[in-house]
Amino acid sequence: MQTIYILDYDADIAFALCKWFNAHGFEAKSFCTLEQLLKQLAAQQPDCIILDCLYGRVSLTSNVCRTFRQVYYYYGNIVLTSTTNLSIKDLQACSAAHFIAKPFELLEVLNVVNNLFKNALAISVA
Q1: What sign does the dihedral 57-59-62-68 (CA atoms) show?
Q2: What number does CATH give the domain 3-125?
Q3: How far apart, in Å, are the Cα atoms of 30 and each of 5, 16, 49, 85, 87?
Q4: How far apart are the C-alpha atoms of 111 and 117, rounded to whole Å?
Q5: What pLDDT sits at residue 84?
Q6: In degrees, to the nearest 5, what angle opens at C-alpha 110 toward C-alphas 77 and 80?
Q7: Residue 92, C-beta contacts closer than 8 angstroms, at least 6 positions apart
Q8: Long-range contact set of residues 58-63: C-beta below 8 Å, sequence gap at least 24
Q9: Pseudo-torsion of CA 60, 100, 29, 63, nearest 10°?
Q10: What is the pLDDT of residue 125?
Q11: Has residue 107 got a pLDDT over 90?
């Protein structure tokens, strides 16, 4: 079962995403703080992290992603969400697989994640 960690500044969004992914066959966990997510990341690596850019106050988002990659050696997918637009430079700094603008539909987020996993499977089979 593929795992997804969710960190969003809005606890209701994180909760809804978590329930949505769990209902669609994923093992999803939402976190209230970055510290909680990092503690879990040290114990278990997910297949995908959905990170709200506002949680890192936008300017810190690349630092948070760098911590994921360099301190916790996380090389899975990172999907960024935000109410503000991000540049290609921001996505590259995070090595993010995708960006989803808020407000979003739950089905849109599910499709993005499913496509990331399908593409990863196709690459590993080839």
Answers
A1: negative
A2: 3.40.50.2300
A3: 6, 9, 10, 23, 26
A4: 10
A5: 75
A6: 40
A7: none
A8: 58/82, 58/84, 61/90, 61/93, 61/94, 62/90, 62/93, 62/94
A9: -20
A10: 42
A11: yes
Measured distance CA(125)–CA(56) in Å, rounded: 35
Domains of the chain, by residue range, sit at 3-125
Is residue 65 a contact partner of residue 78, using CB atoms and an 8 Å limit?
A: yes
Q: What angle, 0 to 180 degrees and rounded to 10, lies between the N-to-C axes of helices 106-125 and 11-23?
A: 50
pLDDT the model gives residue 53: 83
Give the chain's count of helices (H) and strands (E). 5, 5
pLDDT at 121: 56
Q: What is the C-alpha to C-alpha distance for residues 90 and 19, in angstroms, rounded to an integer? A: 28
Is the pLDDT higher at 58 or at 73? 73
